[in-house]
Write a structure and sequence with these properties.
The strands form 3 sheets. This protein has a 6-stranded mixed sheet. A two-stranded antiparallel sheet has the order 2-3. Strands 9-10 form a two-stranded antiparallel sheet. The mean pLDDT is 92. By secondary structure, the chain is an alpha+beta fold. It is built from 2 helices and 10 strands; from the N terminus they run H-E-E-E-E-E-H-E-E-E-E-E.
Length: 147
């Protein structure tokens, strides 16, 4: 897989800053880091991870992960299918997908529905919009800043 583009990395940094502000602790927003999946053998490395508490070592235990964020690369990826499935199977409560369009970045926030063990869309933005984050977060993602 090729390394991320400048735009991808810049978007990740801006999102990390907003998420750090939303949870009040910059030490809990990191990425990319390895997160162990439900089978205990595989792992994924989301663009950003919001942790419940600091940890050492790798991979991160999914029970310590509140949210994973993926920034869709040009040409797309498997953010809406395979990644969505494995993050849900791992029990990660929140999944954020951010994607660039000609009109600016937009975001979709998914919440894990525990009865079905599938993500349901909680909220979404228009391109270059703002996403107010629900509990346990306290903040806003300002997607206009990503462009």
């Amino acid at each position: 897989m090729p390394e991320p583009t400048y735009e991808h990395q810049y978007a990740a940094r801006v999102l990390a800053n907003d998420l750090s502000e939303a949870i009040g602790d910059p030490h809990l927003v990191v990425g990319p880091v390895d997160v162990r999946m439900a089978d205990g053998h595989r792992y994924r490395s989301p663009d950003l991870v919001v942790l419940r508490s600091r940890y050492r070592g790798r991979p991160a235990d999914p029970q310590n992960v509140q949210l994973v964020a993926e920034i869709v690369s040009p040409g797309g990826g498997d953010e809406y299918d395979q990644k969505m499935i494995v993050y849900a199977e791992a029990g990660i409560a929140w999944y954020l997908i951010v994607q660039e369009t000609p009109a600016g970045y937009f975001a979709e926030l998914y919440e894990l529905e525990t009865t079905s063990n599938k993500y349901v869309r909680h909220s979404a933005t228009a391109p270059a919009g703002e996403l107010d984050l629900p509990e346990p977060f306290h903040g806003t993602l300002r997607l206009r800043q990503l462009s």
